[in-house]
Design brief:
Length: 129
């Protein structure tokens, strides 16, 4: 079912926190979109570590990266999908899917997200009641 999710507003950089990405993207290289909602849970890595995988992209303070360990990562079609964490038994959206290694699904590459806490004020100012 669908319901509102709380926006993560904490000041932690979330490094080493467990987070779950979900989406309807491809399940393997060159496949179509998934018929079922899929998810992957990994730890958040530092932006410095993420930058080592993406020398051609700007990984900035408003970016949060999910480890690609276990060879499971979001894939093509998962951009815009949520990255969530659980804190004190409550679900929070911590990121919005932004980038990954576009030519491969998996491969151990981290995936990048827009850090929702960096845009919380804008979201508050622009959300509908």
């Amino acid at each position: 079912y669908v319901k509102k999710v709380a926006i993560y507003r904490g000041t932690s950089n979330l490094v080493n926190e467990e987070a779950t990405a979900s989406g309807w993207g491809a399940v393997s290289d060159n496949s179509g979109l998934s018929n079922v909602l899929r998810h992957v849970t990994n730890n958040i890595i530092s932006n410095e570590e993420c930058k080592m995988f993406y020398l051609d992209l700007r990984v900035i303070d408003s970016t949060v990266c999910l480890s690609g360990s276990g060879d499971k990562t979001p894939c093509s079609g998962d951009s815009g999908a949520p990255l969530h964490i659980v804190e004190n038994n409550k679900l929070f959206q911590a990121g919005i899917g932004s980038f990954g290694r576009g030519t491969t699904c998996g491969g151990g590459f981290p995936s990048g997200y827009s850090r929702v806490s960096s845009f919380a004020k804008w979201i508050d100012d622009n959300k509908k009641p």
